[in-house]
Amino acid sequence: MAESARMIVEMVRSQFTGPGFIPLHAPTFAGNEKKYLNECIDSTFVSSVGAFVDQFEQQLADLTGTPKSVAVVNGTAALHSALVLLGVDHNQEVLTQALTFVATTNAITYCGAKPVFIDVDRDTMGLSPKALTDFLNEFGDKCEDGTYNKQTQKKIGACVVMHTFGFAARIEELVSICTEWNIPLIEDAAEAIGSSSNGKPLGSFGEIGTFSFNGNKIITSGGGGALVSPKLEWMVKAKYLTTTAKQPHAYEFVHDQIGYNYRMPNLNAALLCAQMEQLEGFIEKKRKLALAYKQACEANNLHFRWERENTRANFWLMCIETADKAERDEILKITNEQQVMTRPIWRLMYKLPMFADCQRDHQTNAEYLEDRIINIPSSVIL
Ligand SMILES: Cc1ncc(COP(=O)(O)O)c(C=O)c1O
Known about the structure:
Bound molecules: pyridoxal-5'-phosphate
Number of helices: 11
Radius of gyration: 21 Å
Strand content: 15-25%
CATH topology of the domain at 33-275: Aspartate Aminotransferase, domain 2
Distance between the termini: 31 Å
Shape: globular
Largest sheet: 7 strands, mixed
CATH architecture of the domain at 33-275: 3-Layer(aba) Sandwich
Oligomer: single chain
CATH superfamily of the domain at 33-275: Type I PLP-dependent aspartate aminotransferase-like (Major domain)
């Protein structure tokens, strides 16, 4: 067995007890999950109106320091809703990164808009402020109502920044560039609940931030997502849009635009309320595991990815950077054969057939990372 793969198998097995298969990220239910689920069933409010939905929305608003959050069925629906709220439509383009999970790009196309791929920073794996500035200086045409792409004459309706694996992108710089060019910024913080930059929670920097509570995330509602915003008015509109655009009325059904049935059911919110109570403890345990991995990797000449100064990562999925693609492929093959689950970072979006014709810049760092980043088992160990 190749040396680095053997070392990774040993390092992971020394942290997780038992001889069997070790998954990448298993959920942990160690709190009030069953109690709240039973309460929810007993109340008969299992669908999308209920006390747990309200309670969760308050918990997330408190965590992110925002006035209000809106719970929805998943992270993709949260992103789609955010783009619709900002007015993104089929005549527009959205700047984003090609190094992301496909949901980011899918949500843009649900609006009929075209993604444009900007390179990431090598250290953060999130959208690069320098690449964004270079792109806008070359193609951006500032007009009264926003910025247009000189090449396509289309308006740039939004910029979606993704915080990869819970590591903070250079979000302060990105916010100031987007403000200068009058482009609304959405943070896809699906992977970044509990992470922060300069003490400020990720998800709370942009016009709107979105989260995912899928089963593979740090905390889960089975399936779920949410939106937050520093501006209360966006969240009032989000609640309305994700509730089939129904005007509040005691009994009449009046809908005055195309809305979506995207609300999170109370049953899922009950699970999530219990998970939220444990989030900080989960992150502390993950940071302990990350530190153990870091020390083991350093002693064995492997590059374990760490957080940048003045940022705090939730270490959702922990990563190793290999020397090259050949080493990456060998580690993936051997570790998976040894029942230690590892995964490569995503294939870049423009390499997928549906996004092959999208405009993009040089993608130097995205290509570099695509060839080298591997996720290793990162579950919360109790
Ligand atoms: C970066 C990113 N964006 C969006 C999503 C979509 O979230 P969901 O699976 O809840 O729809 C995910 C995860 O699943 C993700 O990792």
